[in-house]
User: Fold these one by one.
Assistant:
Number 1:
Amino acid sequence: MKPPAATLIACTCGDALRGCLDFERVTGAGGTGPALVVRDFCLPEGRAKAAAWLREAAARRVVVAACGAPMAAAALADVATRVGLDVSRTVLVDVREGCAWVHTRGAQATDKAIRQVRAAAAGLAEAVAAPAPIERTLSDAALIIGRGPAAAAAAARLQALGSKVIVLDPPGSGGPDSSEPGHGGLNAHARVCGTLVSLDGDAGNFQARIEGPDGTADLTVGAVIVAGGPARKAAQPEDLTAVPLSDLEQGLADGTDDALPSEQGVVFIMDDVPWPAVTASTLGVALRLVRDRQCHCLVLFRDLGVAGAGLEERYREARAAGVAFVRLGPSAPETARTADGRWSVRVEIAGVGLMTETADLIVRCTTPGPPDVVGLRQVLGVGSGAGTIGQRMFLEPVFTERAGVFWIGAARAPVTEDQAVRQGEAAAMAAVLAMTPAASARAPAVVDTERCALCLTCLRVCPHHAVTIGPGPAMQVLVSTCLACGVCAAACPAGAIQVVDAPGRRLLVEVDALLDPPPPAGDGGLVIVYACANSAMPAAQALGRLRRSYDERVMLVPVPCLGRVETIHALRPLVAGAARVLICGCFDGSCEHVVGPQRARGVAARASAVAEALGLDPASIEVAAVAPVDWHRLAALLPVAGAVESPGGQGVRPLAADHVAQGAAYGAE
Amino acid sequence: MLLVEQRPVVGGWASGYGCKAGTDCTLCAVCLAAASARRLNPDGHIVLQVDSSVTDIKGEPGAFTVRLLRRHRGVDLDRCTACGLCVEACPAGAIRQPHPQAIPLAFAIDAQQCLRASGDPCTWCRDVCPFDAIRLDSGECEESVQAGVVVLATGFSPFPPSRRGQFGYGRLHGVVTSMDLEQGLWERGSRYLNHLVPGCRRVAFVHCVGSRDVAIGRGWCSQVCCPTALRLAARLVREIPGLEVSLFHMDLQRCAPGIAGLFRDLPPDVHLVRGIPADVQSGPGGLVLTYEDLTTAVRERRAFDVVVLAVGMDGPAAISGLPDNGHGFLKDLPPGVVTAGACAGPLSIADAVADGLRAAGAALTLLEARQ
């Protein structure tokens, strides 16, 4: 007889689960050997009982059937440590649907629990051993690109925290010997002049190659902070009648330009919804011109952007100092040269009509172009995204999709000085964290060197730049850059990459076991839900904690990212008799791994095409997006039991609104 | 590292906000806040102390004494498995799950609603709890802790809309704040609007309620209300067919990357109206707004079913003895005390998350300087 795949511990959660699950049947489920039933697995008493029993049973693989509360996961980790069992040899099965045990149909609930327990046991047999921890030495130097206030703030904070700072000066800026006082406000241990041409290696231990006027330099750095970039070449101004705001600001800052207006009329045109940084510059320049140069300033605006610290006060200050502000009407202002060489500006003002103002100088308050960071993005491989370029990078300030690479200040968007300093200091802290992880770390994914054909697919698809070639003739996953999303494993044609937490074969074996024996067809058919650990899983758990059972037909299969799901995962359940496959995770733009939803749509399209060819319903493979806080949207996607006594109607039953009010209504029925 | 929170759960206001994605993500960062909370306490180095208020901070860098007032919630956090049996047993409905994604995940007994508050000897919850997690003889206790550095992340207070009485908040049915709408979306999804006013088809957002208004002592722009109103409008029109949303604004604020895209590609059912209404009155067709359209300089009256007041941010509830900028936001704090997030000035969720990192760096710098 085959030895049992795993040992089972089932928790009755006091007596709460006894009423809806038949524990005799659950513990007798095939695939598991002897079983222990405890009533309080997550409490100290239950943990002690479980540990003692596991020791006695000399368990090598353990399945715990309990609830979805975080306490249960903590208890399992604790028990595993006590009996010296690797956590990867244990698995927690949530047989309570995120704490919603509202089935009255006890037999079906038990059937579901049995399927879940057997799938977990089968999956455990396919668990991939975590690779041995690697001892690492990390660099304590951060490379800063840019020299604005964000860069200066980052450098200062890095040094205060005991890290080294290397500043990359753009080529042609004078180079390392530049003796300008304070290097433009940046204090650095070393300065390098040139262009970053490549960045290889792992977060905490990057190899940066810099091409400079004196040849190529290779540096080892722990983190890279991009706070600016080479200045974009000044484009020919569209409107030749107007001066760009930045020119005037620079001239005022230098204090050298005699061509600056004095005792003249200056009209500022702010025709767009301005960034706070643009308003700040406009207000600053107008105030200076009024106060120091006795100019007459008129600011024509549509939206006065005063978001941010103190801008509203600045605006009132400017108004008090004599700067005039006039809101533009719907049409754009027209400018024309007058006979005496000045300018006339025709504007439409709401409620007043057309007004003509004469000016000596017209200033266009347009958003300054961002530094030319497109090349830098490509070198660093960040800011990619499905359709909307770099969206994910814009969701989370400071971080990029590549661990150890941070993106701040003017490189992100026009920022005020206050914002720049905040981001700089935050990036410094993030960089220090990237440079001081645990002394040893395990790779979250392993490459089978026998199978790897060096086709470089993983290199191409990895959203985090966490795959590299070598040391031998095989790919390798970088320990601290890899976030274990599994996109490479899903894409690898040789199946050579296994994410330790979600190996592809294990996923498949689990799904097979969930569907064995074949489920009834029709309305009772099973729904396999591949649920993203960042979004759909938390939403499902919340649904459960609000006592909204997601039904015995719904089988949640957690995946680290939708990018982990392969075509076979979408197809196999349908072939095995499931009614629907739902691939449910983040939105484009909120996916931590950038490409997850996009890849899932591709997988669903391919799987649907095959399903059609096989005579199955192609529409039964779906992809959907939910936020972790939006269980309502998830509830609309799943067959959710409305209430314990609800008639056995099928399909989507909307949540009874009164039941969700802050969890208060639980038990009202 | 001790994390003190006065509410029963960590996460602040953002933990009660709803996702604002219509078809696409609008970068509201609510999920970012949720992820930060989920990732809290991964290795046990952080001690969470909820239900506790800071009453006093004394001392100097390296040796602060922080006095805390701890309210017992009637449930032992180490033993409550959130099984929910006590909720079923409670005859007064006084036991609640604070939040389905609460951290820590444990129930709480509302001491006011509990029958024992009126002298009843009820112990039903304790009798039914299989895990001996109910502590009925609880109250408040004072304690004090020592700390080298204090990080204040006390957040903001929403502007009390009753201070702008002309909008009828609390007086007219159908007038809610943007915070109420967020909370409603979180609790009920987009069905909230229909729950509030059945058959709701016309929604007005009034911007700058309690922001940019020197007359009520709030001269600052709260900078999160414009993007929030736009995102909320985008989600509502996407999920409720036939809904028309008008945004009554003064100036649109472009203060988040990606938000300009929302201005440009407004859904056809969302209308921007320049001009803040003078008042809201109950009329024959619903809630009637009187306003001057600044673009056409025409005074108009229009009826709506629901009026959402986009309330600004006020400073946090004061902790005694700490200086503020005169408007409640913390400023010029003594050495060794660091702020994080919106308690020092209005910030978006995403910026507040980043500001937490900044504060961590500042605190660490201070600690290292002492060693």
Note: Chain A touches chain B through 93 residues (CB under 8 Å).
Number 2:
Amino acid sequence: MKANKKIYLILIVLLCTALSCGKSNNPVDEPVTNGFDKTAMLTNYADNLIIPGYTDLQQKLQLLTPAVNTFLTAPTTLNQQAMLQVFKTAYLSFEKVSFTQFGPAETILYTNFMNTLPATTNDNSDLQKIEANISSGSYNLSQNITVNQQGFPALDYLLFSANTVQQFSAANSANRKKYVQDILARMQDLTDNVLSSWKNSYRAQFIANTKSDAGSPIGYMVNQFAYEMDQLKGPRIGWPFGKQSGGLIFENKCEGYYSKTSLALAIENLSSLKAYYIAAGSGKSFSAYLTALGKDQLNQSILTYFDNAINKLKAVPDPLSASLTNNKTAVDAAYKEIQILLTVLKTDLASALSVRITYVDNDGD
Amino acid sequence: MKNRYLKSSVLLAFTIIGFSSCKKDNDEVIEPYTVPATYDFTAANYDASTNRVKMMLELDTYMKTATTVKLDGTKTTNLFNNTNNPFNNAALNTSGVKLSDKTTDAAQFKGNIDLLVSNSQSNDVLASKGTAGYLLRSATSKIVVGADGFEYGQVALKGMMGGLFFKQAMDILSAVPADATIALQQQHWDEAFGYLAIPTDYTPEKDYTVAPLNALVFPAKPALWGGYLAERGKNINAGQVIWDAFRTGRAAIGAKDTKVRDQAITDIQMMWEKLAANAAYAYMNIPQQSANIGNFGTQFHALSEAHGFIASLKYRVKAKSKLSDADYNTMWNIITTNDAYSLVGETGFTKLKQIATILKTTYSLPE
């Protein structure tokens, strides 16, 4: 009897241990799921996409400064053209890091200060505020309220408007020149800040967290796929196209309107999203993750939808602002593909990876 | 002979003592009882609580018309006090209960409602710092805010959830152990359950926000705090804990299992308080998200909800709460002495982060 009791006790202990092992095993938390190494994926993203992305932008902004200064010193059309090339290169480089709005970028509201896209309404208060800042010479660009008075959109407006050369040639353009330099300096500071945070502390944190809950790197990135698609559907293409204004077009609300870089920026933004999704086919990407989870059909659909949307965007004649009126069919075709890709990323991808979309204001009251 | 009697006496004494101790043990032996899977208890009656929930819902429905209707202060006062047959549901008018008499700090919350009424008179004016009016929350929805940016409909609703429903439930539950009879304990327990506003067949697995359950109406569907068990309580398992504790404690009362009953009281009180904190925490973070920068409607709606949930924490069971008076006062001070524009305009969101840190640390909230 005594021996039996002992055996039962051992069995019970073993059973409890087995049960508790089962209970605490959350497959979503484990670094390796279904043979897929999430740590390797995160490391790949950090070292081969994110940090190089910020590094490249930092360099492109550094190249922009002398080009801008040359123009400010001698505001000629020729210098403006030269500056446009360097500006475009920098803006395209930014589109590659627009996706990584989490971690250090989120903390300092990086994309908000670098590239707040115009609101849809027929309201030019942001431009009015920029002009007011210049007139008064007094402004504080670190205030959250000034996000739409600085960054790439402000440079776009100040440096490439129709009457830019005249404005900077005028006698009292000192404030205007200073404003441009202040904006550019701040863009460099912010970029330096984010890059340095990534290299010094955030990279380790990012790579170590293989969860998918709110606040995790995987959680953030899936949210960002959806968010960037929403930005494409809304501020980048849809809103200027009139989708929220009953067909009333706001071509001057296109990203990069003044520099006529709208399409290039949108294509770069979308191509970068795809690049993040496949990570150069390295096998350490969301694409590979889905396949490892047995969801390759979804993965293939996403790849197809990415290509459809990119191709349809490339088929829109430049500049976008003119095509909104003159080539509605082409813009509409691109818009449709964007909607399809948005849906699949926001619902199917998120659900496949057990990620909750948290950036949408769907508060129930 | 003496020794024999002594031995027997001693033996008898010990036996009596032994039986006495056994008798004590017998008193502590609880008859086995079951905890039902639903809130299924004979003669459970919490009509008064339920009627107050229904009243709050009607008042809130009216308050929410503020974006298109310039609210009538007489009507909101009548709804608050149940005077002049104000409710569409006629049974409420003759129910014999009202919101005002069970609302702690009633003047404060009535004041919030009055402000909403006043702000709604400008519901066609675009709001800005110093000017009441409306703000867009999305392309298709608006909120009405005061000169300070706060959406008083939310401040009032979430505040009253705290000052009436939460406060009453907390006090009633604390008093249950002192109730003289089992029947009284059960009655009071049910009354507290009624303030949670969940149906008798509630489970945390049910999603009342999608078809077909979203077609249900209170009391078949959760309301107020009941709704928040899912909305801001999922990641702390609030629904399961509170639901289990309410049924368990109620069953324990009938079985005179005071130990289990008292544990259930504590579980409910602690988790309900944590739910308020978790909601406040979520609403502190929403305005700071980069996706919401520039969207005052979304940011101020969130801040106003936070305001109400922070107000609710005032009514926590202090003897058991982890939140100190000092920390509570810090949070309350921040949310009531700064306008919404300054709070979201502050570089680095220092004040909002201060509140968020207190909440996260005190209650060990998940991210």
Note: The interface with chain B takes residues 101, 105-106, 109-112, 116, 119-120, 142-145, 147-148, 213-216, 227, 244, 358-359, 361, 363-365 of chain A (CB under 8 Å).
Number 3:
Amino acid sequence: MSNIIEVNNLVKRYKELVALDHFNLTIKEGEVFGLLGPNGSGKTTTINCILSLLSYDKGSIKVFGKDMKPDSYDLKRKIGVVPQNVAVFNELSVYENIDYFCGLYIKDAATRKQYVKDAIDFVELGEFTKFRPKKLSGGLLRRLNIACGIVHKPELIFFDEPTVAVDPQSRNKILEGIAELNKNGATIVYTSHYMEEVEQLCSRILIMDKGKSLASGTKEELKNIIKCTEKISVEVCDLTEDNLEEISGLAHAYETSYDDSILKVSFSGGRHNLVRVLDYLGDHDYSFGRIYSELPTLNDVFLEITGTELRDSV
Amino acid sequence: MFLHYFKYTIKTTLRSKESIFWSCIFPIALATFMFMSFGNVYNNTEVMNPVKTAIVTIDDKVNNNDIFLTIVDELSKGEDKLLEPEYTDEEKALQMLRDKDVDGVIYVDDKIHMTVREEGYEATILSTFLNQYSQKQSLIENIAKNNPYALNEGIVSITAASTNACRELNTSNGNQDNLVNYFYAIFAMSCLFAAFSGNDRIFSIQANITSLGARRATAPTHKSIIIISEFLASSLIQFVVECITLVYMIFVLGIDFGDKIPAIFPILYLGSACGLAIGMIIGALPKPASEGAKIGITVSFTMVLSVLADLCANGIKDLIEHNVPIINRLNPAALISDAFYSLNVYDTYSRYLNNIALLGGITVVLCIISFLMIRRNRYASL
């Protein structure tokens, strides 16, 4: 698979603030690539630099193997953008908006008509073609925003937080649609600060914060780079400090907490961790309720790498 | 591509309630209010009242006084009489002058002289009348004394000269009423209001101002094509709006714009284009960066230009013309109203064409500068 995007040593400053700090990124053809980071981490700045909207201080950007410049029209023709903010004309209907944006890429009227129809079918806005944007709900508006970005059937599509402020039903529709676009051959760059979306959708993920790339790889690769391999939670009453100390001393356990009658133990490696915890509780005559054994999530990866909860970060 | 953008610019502009209000409804409403506030003044022609004059005969036996009194009598007849004489003695006459019951006192003696109040056009009329009478009396006396045989011929010649001394001339068939200047200024302001549309056009292609601009900047389209197509579409809409305002003023309000109506259309198109170009250049200014601040500048700038072109009070434009004429040559609102004025006042088109050429020149220069300002494709921040 060839590289669709290559970003090398990108530096972008806003006066004193370093928005991108020697940032590197490689995206391969056919991937759904997730850019994960808290608000202000530099995700949108990265995309805007790749799209040649923003100037940058240092580094290089190649798209489809060529230097990306503001007048690289041959490259821009292959790129679709679904911006974070809904960017459509309020005075035009759903159909007219999609037709307008298609017209920026496709000259032939007959082809354009077919493409517009395909896009409307894809986002399932057939019933709303004559509606003006102001009459659409948040979810429908997001779907219109997507239709305007993908109508010209681009090979590379940027989705910049497309599910912000969208209800769960519409969010699922959007995620399914993105997966389908990828299945049809498009390379996707997806930014979000919703961990579970990225985990569900992306084949490779880059975690960034403060303009720096912190880690990248597949979900499994990312999970392997962190210490935690298993988290065990047990509902149990009246544990003492001594008990907690002894549990912390179990093989491979490295972190223990006890709050609201829930014991949480994190393990790094090892097998049969759950059996050891339950044996300990049984040996000390504790009866217990619900028991959970969880593998690490992207959230754990993010938490361990950045030291912050993703959604609460600013 | 060009037609695609052109079509959608027409659609978006026509569907924008704000733009339609400022472009069309506001000037029509303003013209209507202005017309109503002028009331009958606009429809009535100005009527000059006769000059109230006290005549004091000091010595009625002096030769020629009969002739003078006959002339006064003749000038006091008919609907368009010049004088309204009252024959009285000196004391009463002076009292009447003090009480402002009369505008002047003429003394009929061996020499005819007068006393008038210091101010007012009535004093000028009386003074002019007496001067002319004295000059002609003196001329006739000279002829009678030096060449009595030529007296008849001399009298005919002097009378003819007097008839031709002052003649009212119309330089064109236009309406030279001063009040119509206000309506020219409304057109000037209305054309400049196209600046708001110009703002919108530029905002919508600048990635650092609107998300729509950012989205369009990612498309493989030359900005020049978008700008030209949107400029032509917007100026066409504004021109149509101006034509509607013109039709309304002529046929509903009954404003007389003279007989050179076809020549008004170039003023309206170039005025609209110039207004649009002003909005574009303000929209393209790098600072202030915010949309609201730029709209604020546009409002202030267009209003100042309109005021300088006599929108609020007649005479400002003339004052500028006498002191800093270059401002009138550079102020599109003044050029628009002056183009209207010159069409109405002059038979020739040279001043009108000068205004049109300046308007076109300013528009082209503003468009080029705007384009140069926004052609940069990468932004320092979004």
Note: Chain B has a mean pLDDT of 85.
Number 4:
Amino acid sequence: MPLISNFFVPIIKVPEVVENLLKNEYHLHHYHKSNSLKTLENYLDHLKKDLWVLIEHPYVDKVYRDSFYHYYSSKNQVYSRDCIKLSFFTNEIDNSLFRSSESKTILQDSFLGFLVLRPTFPKIIGRSVLSPLSVEENNFKICKAEVSTTANGVKLLVNGFPHSSQNSETITCAETTIWSVMEYFGMRYPEYSPTLPSKISKILAAQSFERQLPSKGLTAQQISYALRELGFGVKIYSAASYKTEFLPLLRSYIESGIPVVAAIQNNRGIGHAQCIIGRTKFNDESIDILEQFEDYGNEVKIFQFETVDLKYVFIDDNHPPYKISPLDEPSSFYSLPNWKDCKIVNFVVPLYSKIYLDAGEARAYAKSILKNYIANLQVYKNKDLVMKTFLASSRSYKDYLACNPHLEPLVKEILMRSSMPKFIWISELSSKKSLKQEMVDGLLIIDATQTKQHGLIAGLLGNYYFTENLNEIVKINISLQPFKSYNFNLK
Amino acid sequence: MENSTKEYFELLIKELDADAEVTIVDQDTTRKIFDEIEEDIEMYRFENQQKIKDSQEEMANVVFTS
């Protein structure tokens, strides 16, 4: 029975320890060894330089074992079934702390995630979940799931987004993207389960006329099909059809805390799938320079938050997690010339199956309500407002309302007692000044299950609360001060 | 219907001892707002139909492998 060996070293020493393991445990020749180490060094370069790393071998990884038993074990060449696991910490930790219940909090506070190195040389970067605190550039907000793992036998938690590189045999970029989306939703919501490469392959086999292994990639339509089979109400968008609405829609889904699968392409032969999971934090200047507005009458100018110039956070299986790039240059972090000029041509949104109102309809509906309420009920006059539209679960939203210190008791109670479906669309309205302070001056709450008119659950506009039913519009005068915005979709 | 909604909110205001007045927007204005919103949404849906169809066709052709 093999014993598990472990090493606790500063991050700079990791390649040296891994090199010894590759030589002694995997009997690797020079070519594969140096290329594998190069891949690892490239990944570690993205991380903070003062981290400490626990290296464990052998490690049984669920994702690699799935590929091993379904594919690699059937090959003539011998593949190992064991992986190496790296666990990242903020500081050096004595081995004795891993054997004492009192020190678990110390371990947890220092723990920043893990990375599995699989024996698919040289593409050794396997499953990882890293806290954004482990990377050098982390001024961003993303969709995060809490993932349980072990380090030196001790159960620890990490908050991050699942990542893996492709091995280009059982998983290419397309399958990896499906896997990471499912891993995220499966870890976060009880409605979904994490999946494995063999299951993705099995799902796609049902509508394929070719063999699935070795994988030759997927079309965006196949990605969409797989996600639908895995329980989502999928929406797809193409840049050519949606034109100027395309990126604002994508941004609206990101603000909703939904990881979006983006398909990028250029005319140099690149076709690639990435996951977009968040965005950089905005600063005062990015709000001040907002210029594009729509005149809603009564001298009211409405700016859209989705036009704020922000960079986005990518999970790309050819790079370490949390790469940052503008949406109109999704391959800016690639240095190879054939990756130049890539554009997002399609994106696929894995929505909860009972969200019937998509982002485009919700945005159009919110704009129409606001325009008509301004024109007919004079809710605003001579105002500049920024409108931000996103999805929220009604449970999280009510929790946020209940704890919001700035809402007056009557408004809070009316909203708390309003019946809401599982998901709602929210349009927050803020002056530029309020937005910079993460405050809101007004809002619309829209039923995400209602595809006809009369989906307005509640509106706080000017100094009025509004609600609608099939026959009437109810209006209550309230005193509305700027209140804290909803910031729980991206963390 | 009108009275019961109004009454519900008035009771809540009373329960919370708040100073607020409930009004039901007059029928002409309500009809105008509802009709215009319906028109806007119908127009968006009409334009969106073709976009949905085109998106599906475009997605079938590109393979993502890189």
Note: Helices of chain B lie at 2-15, 27-59.
